[in-house]
Structures are given as structure tokens and as C-alpha cells.
Amino acid sequence: MKFAFLIHNMYGVGGTNRAVLNLATALVGQGHGVEIASVFRRVDRPMFAIDDRIALVPLVDTRPRRPDRADPQHREPSLLVPESEEFHTQYSRLTDERMIGYLRSTGADVVVGTRPGINLVVARHGPDHAVRVAQEHMTQDLIDDALKDHIRLSYDRIDLAFTVTEADAAAFRTGNPVPHTRVLALPNSVPLPTVAPSGRDNRIVVTAGRLDPIKRYDRLIAAFARVAGDHPDWKLRIYGDGPQRPALAAQIRELGMADQVQLMGRREDMATEWVKGSIAAVSSERESFGMTIVEAMRLGLPVVSTDCPVGPREIIQHGVDGLLVPMDDIDAYAAALRSLMRDEGLRARLAQSALANAARFDPETLADDFARQCAAVLAERGPAPAESVRSKRSVQGPQFARSVLTRGGELIREPDLARLLGDPVLRGIAGNDLARRASMGALTRLARIRQARATSARLQKAIRRRIAAPAGGPAVDCLVLPDHGLSWRLDVPGLAAGAHLLLRDRDTGHKVRVPLDARDDLAYQVGVLPADALPEGRWNAYLQPLTGARVRLRPNQIDTRVLAGGYRPVDDLARAHGVLSHLPYRTVDGFLAVRSWVREEHAEVRRIALSGERVSIDVAWCGPGVPEQAVLRRRGHREGAVRMPVVRKRNGHLRIDVAVDELAAHRLGRYEDWDLWLCQAGTDREVRLGLLVDDVIDKKLVYNYPEIYLVDEPGLDLVEEDPAPVLRVRPYYTRDSELSIVVVDRP
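== Glycosyltransferase ==
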């Protein structure tokens, strides 16, 4: 069978996109044809990697300087998508025209809508020869009553309606009775992860999702705060972005939890983040399904979740593979967290059951059920008259942009494409992963250039170089080993012997080469970089073939779970040998880089506590001897230093107390940065404090400490006049992950 999914915006992120992509990938893996029609295209590339065998068809391209963006019809409101649909204002007469045109032209056996407004379009304009399917990823109680009226009026042409839970299927049958439509439950699928499950070695609670009020992360933070004092070595990590971030950051600061609760931002690959945790947490008011629950379970994490409508209770078996707690009961949530934090055996037992039970959400299993239901409808209906199918396909609908080729390399139905691809250069461009998405018009214009007598040899060479250029560079998986060395895996079939990885220091140009060992008949290559083979610095990663230019590497998966646990020396001998840490990360432009620290002596920050009078810092000393004094040095051309004693604690850590009023008394300007150092008596060596053994590359975005306010003006003779009446003192980590304190007297 051939399946066509009609989706709002496949180029973005979100649970619906992931669910559709997982199902589509499983269907194409079972031999079915699959096409995804995205109503909107707002960026150049999809956020999620899409299997090459799946055709992605954008209907309306609203990227800058695209004709659709200025089309007058795009400013006229949609007549197909009702006003009660959440995204009604994004649809227009242009999207109406393109969706109808697509549905009239498709030869798919099954046409699938993926949200209520689009489902109505499929119901009213889906081809008669196809099975018309409505997927409901939104719970029934969140669908507007006016929209439900449209569903009752139009869904009689829908053959199958799938909700993601049995509870929602029952609510659909009760609230939207449609006599001729089968309403079934099809859970969202989650593929088997390609990273190893969590070893639950790190004392981290992980949660992920949009920072939206419905997720109730404020309650999660409050519950965690109630147990954090008894478990100071545990942390809560919240992944995601959204409108609630400022409010959550303020809550964390007010609770004094900046060291234990961290807003991590959004991650493209959450699998490598889940495995850094030992417990997963969900605190939502409602979940239409709970995809993050399944993702965490498939990676071996027990989940603590609110028993909210409607998804969690159909995924988690309380006390077997996770814990369910009543809604709005922060004490119960805190008790559930406490029980798992305290009991390692309970965590392990629930985690093993979670791994086993989550297998029922495997995409292959659910895709097989989905395909079987669709095939049953086709079988009941019998073969469609050939004439009606052909007449549907021949209807002259509006022209909408398609890719030059489907992602699997199959030609699409533009009449002149085969003639244009007779030219070998144009054929090469169409086969290139980057250029195959070029528009028909771009190929036509290039064909005219190629046919022109005046085309220069230089231009033709430039075209050939573009064809030969790799599509974004080879992908690589990188794993931090237990000794902080790095393991690399590249899937570059047929790479000639002698190729190697190349790490180049951005500042000095120094190069470190990593030999590659071919595995599985040259299907992939593995390289291991010993921990002591990489000096301190910032390194760009390349693939250096035996012949030809080096190319930047793009990270596929970066597994840094070893670093997430922080500095953990096994004995006093390890403490005496300094610190060594290598952190691979994805750069802003999407390439792989490594930040490495190699220090014979180092002061690793373990905890920072703030009061109204001081900043208290716990430090693990790495190196010979024990420092007896700390010093704060003013950064910049104005010299200045504040010295403080170092107190040795029972656990072997050191404590430094910075009195903020004393620091303020030494300031000479309105904005000053002070850097923290440790020094041993009788020597002139000073060692910076920092957080180096960590998996966060930009700590300014994650470790957001509150400010200490000094209201009383100390009455100093300042270099700059008119100081503000309120002083602010705040610790922070620099770009190099070293600890500093800023003093500001500006409002």
C-alpha cells in the first residue's frame, strides 16, 4: 500500500511530528510507499532526520523571498479550516487550494490527516479510492465544541479515526458519535533507541517538554525542593524551551536551587540526555499520550508521573515500571521522588520492568496494526473502478511545489524532468542530497545556462565542485569513555585505508590525528582517542581522507553521560593527579567540536550557596598538597585583590566564604569582574576555580545564580561618581567554565 500523511508543518518540532515520522518510517521499512505532505514549509531543512525512502512534499513555501509568501490568496482567510481550529489564522485560501489539489492528485491508497482542521479537509476532499484516516493527537476535552460540531457533520466520510489512548477513543465515541467511522486507539510509537540504556550512575532527575503552563514544572520544582535538602547530591534537569522559562528561572532563584535545578534548553536528540539520569519525571496537568514517558522507559528509567488525564495511566503500571501520584498533590510527588532517590534497588527493579514493558510501543508493531486496519477497509470496499481513480488523478488542481526527486531517488511526476535530467551535470545535482530539493524552476534556469554557447568553463567547474561537495559533511557518533577518552564511529562506506580523524586547535593550529579502524567490511570506522592524547584547547573535528581535502564532521549522537556525574575521583591518588576532561559538543552551525581541559592542579567547584551576606563555595582539590588560602583578583587594568582563608571539611572538600560587603568595599567602578583562585602557602602558584568535569558547554545558560543585593551604600570614594543605591553581587561561570563574581552598582 501507499500511505500519504497530510501534516501541518513537518519542518518543525513537536510530538505530532515525531509520532507521524516514527509511524511513517516503520511503514516504509515494511515495504509500503510513504509520502508526507507538509502544508507549510518555513525553513530549509526539517528539524528531524527523515528516511531517504520517504517523500517530503511541501505545499505552501513561506520562506523569505518565495512566491507563496507574497501570494494574495495567502492573505485571505481559509474557508476549509474552521475558526475553532487552534491554528486557523495560519491557514488561507492558498493553503485550501494546495491541500485540495494535493488530495485530488494523490494516488495513495491511504490518506491520513494528523490534526482536527486537516482531518476535516481529508474528510471533505479525500479521494474516493483511498482509505480516509483521521489521527487525533489532541485529547477530546481540548477540542473546541464548535470544532466537534464540524467533526460530527463531516466525519461520515472518514473510514478510520485513531486516538492515542483507549480512554480518548471512548470519549470520542461518546462525544462525537459518527455512525460510519471506526474509532480505534493507536498509541504513539517510540523506536528502539540507538544508545545504550541508562546505567543510572548519575544522581539526576530528568524531565523534558515545552516550558508551558500545562506541564506544571513549577510543581515539579517545588516537590524536588522539598527533598533536595536531604539529597544534596541529586539534581533536577528540565529540558525544553517555552514561555514559562523566565518564571521557572525566577522560582529556582527564589528557592535557592540554582545548583540543583537546571533549565537545560531544548535538545535535538533527547536520547543522549535521558541516559544521563536515574529517574524521569512528568508533572503535567494533562497528557494526550505521554511520549516522553515511553522514551524514558525505553532507555531504562523509572518514571514518576502525575496521574493526569489521559495518557500516563495507560503507559505506567504503578509500582511495576513507574510511580503514579495524584494530581495537585506536591507532597505525594515529593514522597515518590524521595522513595526512588533513597532506594537504589527499587530504581533498578522499576527500570528493568520499564525496559521490558515499553517494547509494546515499538513502531514496527504499531505500524503493522495500523496497516492491517487500513487493508481491512480496502478489502471490505473492494476494488475501485479504474476510471474513477484515473479521473480523480487527471483533475487539474493548482500547481504546488514538489522536490525534484523523492528522497529515495524515484522520479516525481513533472513532465519535463526526465528530459532535463538527460544532462549528466543536472542529473548529478538532482542526485545530490543537498541539491535534490531544488525547485523545478531552478533546474530549468540551470538547464538554459548549460545549453547557452557562452557558458564559461569556469562556471561549469564551479557547478561540478558543488555537485561533488558533501551534503553537510560526514556524520559521526562520539562517546566519552569512563577514563574521559573519546570513542568515534563514522558510517562512511568504502572509505579508503589511511583516512583518519583530525582535531585542530582553533587558536594554535596544533593538530591531533586519530587512526580509524574499519569494521564490518568497511561499512563503518571506529577511532579511539586516549584521554592523555589531547592537550587543553578548543578543537574542530574533521575527516581527513588519504587523498583530498579534509571535511568538517557533523555530530549524529554525542554521549557525554560520563561527564554528567561530575568530578568523581576513585581515591586520594586520583585527586593528586589533577584533572583531565574532554567535552564533545555541537557548534552553533552544526559541526562537531571538542573542549578539553588538562590541568595538573585544579579546584573543581562542587556546590555554591548564597545568603544575604556571603557566597559559600565547596571545592574538590585536584593536585598535590592542600591550598590554605583563596584570592579574588579584579579583572582588567585596575589591580586589586581580596584574600580569604580556606576551610577543610570532613568529606575532604574545601570551603571558601566570600563576604560580599568586603568585596563591595574594594570596588573602584560600577561594573567589576573578580576571578577566584586558590594558592598554597609558601608558593606563588595560583589555581583557578572552575567546573570542568561537566557535560554543559555553555554554563551561563544553565547555571543561573541569583543576585545578592546590598542596599546600604558603603560611602566609598569611587573613581566613578554617583553610585547607584543598590549593589548587586552574583557568581557566574565564564566562557572557559571558570568561576567569577560580578559586582554591579547600576540599576
